Amino acid sequence: MNKKAFIFDLDGVIVDTAKYHFLAWQKIAAELGIEFTPEHNEHLKGVSRVRSLDLILELGKIEASQADKDRWLVQKNEDYLSYLVHMNYSEILPGVMPVLQYLKEQNQAIALGSASKNARPILEKTGIMEYFDVIIDGNDVSNAKPDPEVFLQAARKLGIANDQSIVFEDSVAGVQAANIAGMTSVGIGEHNILHEAQYTFKDFTYMDLSFIESLIKK
Ligand code: BG6
Ligand code: MG
User: Fold this and answer.
1) Whose CA is nearest to atom 8 of ligand 1?
2) Which of 133, 142, 178, 217 is 20 to 30 A from residue 152's alpha carbon, by CA?
3) Could you read off the pLDDT of 107-149 as tens digits, one per residue?
4) With helix as H, strand as E and coil as C, how does the chain read?
C-alpha cells in the first residue's frame, strides 16, 4: 500500500486566518505611519511573527529598540487573538474537510506544518485536531519558512521520506520551503503568486479527489 505524508499549512490553507494576520499587522503599520498593502502582505505569509515585524519596519525604514519591538509583537498577537475568540468549525475553508476525510479513509499520514505559535488553539476551536497524526508549529522550529525545517520535522516524525511527502501551502515562502525539502508542493491560491509550486489550485473546492488519489499512487 502507498502511504504518503500530506502536510498542511494552517493559516490561509485550512482556515481563513491570513486575513486576521493582515489586519493586525496593518494596524501596527498604520500606527507607525507605514503604508502596508495586500501586496506587501504576500511577503509576510508563512513568515514568523518576529520576522514579519522586521519586514514591516524595513518597509518603513524604521529602526526600533528591542523594547519597542517586543511591545508591538505582543500588541499584534493580542489583536490577532481577538479575531479568533469566536472561531469555530464554520471557519474551515471550503473543500478542506472532504480532503481530510478522504485522506483518513485512505489511511494516509497527515501532518500540520505551520509557522504559527497559535496553531494548536485554532485546531482545538475548529475541532479538527484529531485528523492530524503529527503537529509541528512555530513553537517547535527555530528556522522560519522558506527554511524547510517545519516540513522536514513533520515528515521525519511521520517516518515518511521527503520525496513521498506532499505540502499544501498558500505562501510563497512555504512553497519554497517544500521545494527545498524535496517534497511535492501544492499551492493554494493564485497561480501568478505561487508559480513556484508544482501544482496550484485557487482553493480546495477546485481540487478533485482524483488529484489526491493520483498523489497517493505516484
Ligand atoms: C503563519 C502566517 O502561518 O504564521 C504568518 O502565515 C504568521 O502570517 C505566522 O506571522 C506566525 O504566526 P503567529 O500566530 O505565531 O503569530
Ligand atoms: Mg499560510
Assistant:
1) 45
2) 217
3) 999 999 999 999 999 999 999 999 999 999 999 999 989 999 9
4) CCCCEEEECCECCCECCHHHHHHHHHHHHHHCCCCCCHHHHHCCCCCCHHHHHHHHHHHCCCCCCHHHHHHHHHHHHHHHHHHHCCCCHHHECCCHHHHHHHHHHCCCEEEEECCCCCHHHHHHHHCCHHHCCEEECCCCCCCCCCCCHHHHHHHHHHCCCHHHEEEEECCHHHHHHHHHCCCEEEEECCCCCCCCCCEEECCHHHCCHHHHHHHHHC
Residues having CB closer than 6 A to ligand 1 are: 10-11, 18, 21, 44-49, 52, 77, 114-118, 138, 171
Q: How many Å lie between the centroid of ligand 2 and the Cα of residue 1? A: 30
